[in-house]
Amino acid sequence: MRATTHRQRAWALALTAALLLSGCASLQPEPVPEPVPEPVKEAEAAPVPKAEGLTLAAAAGSIETRPAYIRGSKGFFQPDKTITRAEIAQIFFNLELFVPGERTFSDIAAGSWYHDAVAALSGALKGYTDGTFRPDRTATVAEFLAVICRVLTVKLPERAEDAPWYQPHWDTAQDLGWLEACPDALPDTPLRRDAAVTILNRALGRVPDTRAIDSLENPVFLDVGPEHPAYYDILEAAVAHECDLDRDTWITETLTPPQLRQGLHTLDGSAYYVLEDGSVYVEPGLLEADGALYLVADETGRIYADGALHLWGEDVVFATETGALLTDGAWHDFYFDSQGVYTTGDAELDGYIDEVLAACTDETMTRAEKLRACYDYVRAFGYLGRNSTIYVKTMSPDQASAYAKKIFATGKGDCYNFAAAFYYLARELGYDATAVVGTCGYVWNTHAIPHGWVTIPLDGGTYLFDPQIENYNNRNGISNDTHSAYQVTYATAPANYHPN
C-alpha cells in the first residue's frame, strides 16, 4: 500500500523544505534589508512535532516516495555555499508545496529560471517595500523559517511589541527542534546548503539510511564523502528513493542513484576524473586521459587544477586551472617537456642539478628541508670577488644558466653565480624562484654595490635568499643566526637590498 495521500505527502514535504532553508552556518551575515513584516496571525493548523508527523505518514501506508529536493552542480554539492532567496522558492517548488497568491514582484522576469517557483510560492514569500523580491540575495535562517511557517500554516506565538519581526518563527523552530543540529545558528546567519539539508531532514523525520548509502558503489558528489558531518543527510536530500516507514530504511530494489558524467570535473582548484562506470580514478600519480596529462594528488582521486607548480617524486609539473598539466610550453620561465616535466632546456645544467640534489637531499626530507639543504650547499661554495667592472642589470635565462654551470663546475663564483645556482635548485624543487639583480649595502660599507640574490613567493609574501652574503659571514666571523639571509623579507634582511 502506498504511503500517503497527496495532501498528507505534500504537508510532510513542506515540512522538509522548511528545514532545508533554515541552514545553520556560522558565517558572518551581510547587511540585508529587513523584509516587510507581516502581521502576526494564528494559523489554523497547530505545530506538529517530528514524531507525530511520522505517525501520521505511517498510518496511511508503509512505503513513502521521497523526492530529491536539492541538487549539486557538475558533480559537486558545495556544502559551504549559501542559498539565495530564489533557491528557497525552488526547494519548495521541487517538493510540489505550492502556496500561490496574488502578489507579484517587479524584479521577477518572465523566463528566469526561478519565475515559476516564485509564482507558485508567492503566497508564502515576502518582498521589500519597493516591490522587489531580490532573488539573488543570500537568504538568512530567519527568512527561511518564516517561509516554513507560512507554507505549513503553523500556529505562531504572539510577537512582543519590542521583538524583531522574525521572533515568532524563530521561537517556533526552536520549540519543534528544527535547529537542534545547528547550535551556532543565528537569525541573520546566511543559509548554507549542508546545514539546510540536515535541519530539513530532521523536521520531516527523514532519517538517512546509512547502510543503504554506504552500499552505493559510486559517489553521488565529488566534494562530500563519509567524512563530512552532513554526508548522509546530503544524500538523503539529493537522492530520490522510496522508504519503508516501518523500518525507516530505503527500498534499495527500486533505487536508481544518479551517475556522474564520465570525464573531468573541476571546481575551485581541484578536479576529479570519473570513469565510464561512474567510479573515480584514485591511483596517485600521472593520469593520461582524453589527450591530456593530469596529476592525481592522493588516494581520494583529487587532481590538481590550481594554476600552480607541484612536485611529484623528483619531477616538477605545472597544473593548469583546467586540471591538465602544461606540456611543451612555458610558465614564468619554467619550461615543460612533452611529458609535462620541468627542464632547464640545458642537458648539462640539468645534470649538475641532479647531482647536487642527490648529494644533499634524500627521500625522507620535506620540500622545505630540501630547500634549506640546497641553500647550505650553495653557501659552502668558494667565493671569487666580483669583477668591479661587471654590473649586471638583468639576468636573462641564458645568463643565469651560464652563471650556474660555472659555479657547479668549478665550486667557486661571485654573488651572481651563487644566486643563479640556488635559483635553479629551488626551481627544481618546485618553487617559483626568481634570480634578482640590483644593489646591496652591507655591514662593511656605507654605499650600495652591485649584487645578486633570489626571491621566492611563500605563504602570500615574498622572501629573500642570499647564500653569498652568508658565505661572507662565515668567512668574517659574523653570525648567520643574527645576520641570516635565508627566507627573510626585504624589511628584515641583514642588508639594504634594491632590485633593479
TrEMBL record:
Q: Which Pfam families match?
A: SLH (PF00395), Transglut_core (PF01841)
Name the UniProt record assigns to this protein: S-layer homology domain-containing protein
User: Where is the secretion signal located?
Assistant: 1-27
Q: Coiled-coil stretches, from where to where? A: none
Q: Origin organism of this chain?
A: Candidatus Avoscillospira stercorigallinarum
Q: Which residues form the SLH domain?
A: 101-162
UniProt keyword list? Repeat, Signal
